[in-house]
Design goal:
single chain; 155 residues; mainly alpha; Cytochrome Bc1 Complex, Chain A, domain 1; 55% helix; 10% strand
């Protein structure tokens, strides 16, 4: 859950910085996911469209935001992320597909089914220090792939 909250905080911060402050894109998306089957792995994606001339500026802004979170972040962003997760959960529990997915996932990982009922308690228990520690562990700038797509030049 800490990893997912870290991704949500980055989503909020990058939207504020790259879209609203710098006007560098119409939208930015962050996806943070983990998997333990068949092997433990994690992935974090940040993607957006922009003017090709602003790539370096916007990439530097992303690096600043990663460092901001590694250095401790701010509680208000964790609170916002938690509220978004809470709201999403309230909607999800109304859908049969949610329950099917949760039960299947827990069974594959050998976890008890009653963990579903402790979601909100586990969400509330996550601290900013834990998120920052996760950022320090996973957002290392020596382990990333940067892909930039430029428009084809006219001949």
């Amino acid at each position: 859950m800490t990893f997912a909250l870290m991704g949500e905080i980055l989503q909020i911060r990058l939207r504020e910085e790259i879209r609203e402050e710098l006007g560098g894109t119409y939208g930015v998306s962050v996806s943070a996911s983990t998997s333990s089957i068949p092997d433990s792995e994690y992935q974090i994606y940040a993607y957006f469209g922009s003017d090709p001339d602003r790539v370096e500026e916007l990439f530097a802004a992303i690096q600043r935001e990663l460092n901001w979170l590694i250095d401790g972040g701010e509680q208000k962003y964790l609170d916002t992320a938690k509220e978004l997760f809470r709201s999403a959960r309230e909607e999800q529990v109304e859908e049969n597909s949610f329950w099917l997915s949760q039960i299947g996932s827990l069974m594959r990982r050998g976890l008890p089914l009653d963990i579903i009922n402790s979601y909100l308690d586990r969400l509330d228990a996550v601290t900013l220090e834990e998120v920052s520690a996760a950022a320090e562990r996973y957002l290392t700038l020596d382990q990333y792939i940067r892909v930039v797509l430029f428009p084809q030049e006219e001949e």
